[in-house]
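Can anyone check this?
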Amino acid sequence: MGKFLFVTVILAAFVSVAFASAPIAGHVVLIGLDGWGAYSVPKADMPVVKSMMEHGCYTLQKRTVLPSSSAPNWASMFMGVPTELHGYTQWGSKTPELSSRVTGEHGILPTVFTVCRDALPDARRV
């Protein structure tokens, strides 16, 4: 469940940049670790990550979706909706097992990456 810690932060940053009139961040960093519990963050010795938290935005509050396995939860983080809307329910699936409520140009629910690409077409990965 702790995997939501930084992914939630990054999704918030993506959405902020995508809908802002002018980008407020030069870079967005996505850190995602399966099974990392938020309870361990205060005790962890990780000065770089904690510095990024101090100078950025983050949350240690999260909620898993069902089924509570990695693939459906990552899909929910990247698409911003629960399982019943994006349709991915199994690990390793290439297409949704349930029909997506809304589909974009790629036949699946749009992801945060699609929204960013549409809002910032000149942005590039580094």
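Reply from J.R.: I decoded it. The helical segments are 4-19, 47-55, 70-79, 83-86, 112-119.
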